[in-house]
Every structure is written in structure tokens, then in C-alpha cells.
Amino acid sequence: MTDVKEPTRHHHGNLKQALLDYAMQAAGEGELESLSLRKASRDLGVSPGAAYRHFADRDSLMRTVAQNGFDMLAERFEGALPFNSDASDEDDARRRFVGLASAYVTFSQEHPSLWRLMFGPYGLSPRSATARPSTYDWLGKSLHELAKFGVIHTPDAPAQFFAWTAIHGLSDLMHSPAVSDRNTSSIVHSHCCFILDAMPPTG
Amino acid sequence: MTDVKEPTRHHHGNLKQALLDYAMQAAGEGELESLSLRKASRDLGVSPGAAYRHFADRDSLMRTVAQNGFDMLAERFEGALPFNSDASDEDDARRRFVGLASAYVTFSQEHPSLWRLMFGPYGLSPRSATARPSTYDWLGKSLHELAKFGVIHTPDAPAQFFAWTAIHGLSDLMHSPAVSDRNTSSIVHSHCCFILDAMPPTG
DNA sequence: CCGCAATGTAAACAATGATTACACTCGAGA
DNA sequence: TCTCGAGTGTAATCATTGTTTACATTGCGG
Predict the structure, then answer these.
(1) The model's pTM
(2) How far in angstroms lies nucleotide D9's C1' from the CA of residue B51?
(3) From the list A172, A179, A197, which residue is nearest B169 (CB)?
């Protein structure tokens, strides 16, 4: 007489998804690094060995969580700069670029633990999102918009990579408490100006 | 009839330093995250509990290692840009700046595991080096040299922070295998140009 | 209705972080 | 020189974890 769940399969429910959800929540609470399969299984009311039906080992779960993180990030990007839309004018292009950077920084601040995992020991990269387009593609789109309105020169690979590192570095340094707590959005804005100044339209 | 070591104290030797050395070597071999106090003690021929005379817990050792990392980084900076020296002309100032960035990137590539620890879960920052000047100070010095020769405008705090994030982001993304293996030094050089272009002398 | 594959259980092994009560050892002071 | 105590290491122990194995259950497809 266990209660009925819609996509429930077999025995105990959708354990794989439950484990993932559990891990994602742990990530949200900054307890990712100390996440234990045993405690997870315990909290999910399941035996320790059960998890191994769905994940080869702990690292496998962590990798999946990291992938999930990149997909979450992609969602944020889509929110800030819908991929099937275009900037209407120069100001809009700037706004969208700042919005993108802001999404990146905000994400790293809201999910520091997940962030560390994503760029941590598994050698993953922004390109490893399963979602299409991948996180890296948005930046390129935004830069092309800016170039279209003459804000910057047409972004080649080095320029795009440079912009990426600048935003990534900002996020990485701001997600630690070591940085002064000036208004985040003003910092991001200032950084975006620097970035754009670095690739002037004259080429 | 135990053999005599110079700075040996007491009983078994200088265990605290031995543990640190062991951990630093593990860092060099990329096995930092899985470093175990037990294995360390075992390899050092000492009982598991002994380590706790010198480090409150595992994290305490890790924190010390991270500090050590920042000090190592400071040494590299000192090598690339001796703090008690000055750029002789514009080209020299540029060279020194690139050298600094290069040191940063190279360090992150040669010690990825240590790198992750340093900027990892302990919320440390470049300023937390015990060595004086701290790692953050070198960048300021270099930027001031550049300003002195008219390459960039006088660096205010936002500009200095921007330069830091750009270099840090580059290091962080390049220490993972995800990035194309173009010639590192050419990438660094290209990045430095971008950074300097972002803060033009006219203000 | 039966049987098989997917799924979960129970028990066990090896390893780890950490604590505690105890023992040794070296050196400073009587 | 002798003693005594702080500093240091030991042994034993506890709680916890990752992981594997042999076994049970369940539920769907034939």
C-alpha cells in the first residue's frame, strides 16, 4: 500500500533521480564535498548498496552532478540572453552582455560548492554541458551581437577566450568570501566595460 | 643508535615538517584530494594518532598546505619580478608584466591539485600568503610600472582587480585539460595585450 | 501464469578521521 | 647527577565511509 508516484518504476521509486536530487540539494547547501553515499542512501530509506545499481561509484555521481550544474548554468544563460533572439540596438547588446556575465557570477555565488565541483578535479569544461547550445556558445553569440553594432571588433577565438577567462576569473574570485562585498552588480558592470574596452572596434 | 639529523627534536624527528613535506609532495603528484593522514603516518613510519599532535585535524593540514602554496607562488613572482627592482623602460615593464602572468599560469599548470586546494573550499585568497609582500601586491607593482611609462592609466582598485581576475581566470581554465593545447606562452602573451588594452593611458 | 531482468537488501571487507589512555624521551632545573 | 614534566609517539578503539558479494524481491513481458 505504498503511495503511488507517477513515473515510479519497479521497486522503490526512481532511485537514480532521487540520488541526483539529493546531491543537488546538498550542493545547494554547500555540503557537496562531504556528500556520502551512505548518508544519502540512509536519508532516502534505502540500503547502502542500492546506489551502486545506478552509479558505478561515488565519482560517477559527482560527475553527473557537475554535468547537471553546467546544464543549470545554461538555463541561466538562456534566461539572460534567449538564444533565439537578437539584440535590438547597441545598448541592448551591452545589456545582454552584462546580463550574461551577471548570470555567471551570480550562479557561482549562489552555488559555490557546485561551482567548485564543476571546475574542480574532474577536468570538465563549459563545453561539457549536455544541453545544446553549450554554455560556451552564449558568450560567442553575445560578442557577435556587440560586434554587429560596432561596440567591438569581430571576435576571433583569442578574443572570445579572453572574455571568457575574464568573466570566469571574476566569478571564481567572487564566490569566495575573500573579496570585498561591494555591490556585486556594480563590479560586474565595471568588469564588462573593461572587457569590451580590450577589444576595440577598429581592430 | 638512530641516525642523527640536524634540526631533529625530541623523539622521532620533526614530524610536523615531515607531514607537510609529505603533503607537498603529494600535491606535486596530484594526489592531494585523496591524501590520507593514515597513509602519510604509515609512510613516515609513525602511528596514526601521532599526526594529531601537530595538526588539529586533516583540514588543518590542508589549510597549511594551501598557505604553503601561496608562499610558493610568491616565490615565483619574486623570480619573475623581483620586488626590489624596477622596470628600466616600457618594454621592460611589459616583459615583467607578461612574466608575472606567465608565472601564475605556469604554476597552476604544474600544480593543479595544489591550485584547486588554494582556491578551493577554504575560502582563502591571494592575500592569505604568509609571505610579505603578498601575491596580490606584485600585480599592483607591475601595473604601476606600466603606468609610469605611459602604457596604461594609473591603476585604481577596480582596474587592478580586473587584471587579477583576467589572469586568474586564464590560469584556472588552463590548468584543466579541457583547453586546447596551443602554446601556453603565446596565449599568455595575447592575454596580457588584451588586459593592457582594457586600461588605456588616456584614462 | 511464469520467469527473467531490474532493482533493492544484508552482510561483510578495507580504509579513513578522530579520540583516549598510556608510555617513552629529552632536557631544564634542583 | 637525578628527577620530573612537557612534548611527543603508541595502541586500542569508535564511528563512518566506499565498495563488493551473495541473496531476496518485484514487477513486467511472453
Answers:
(1) 0.90
(2) 9
(3) A172
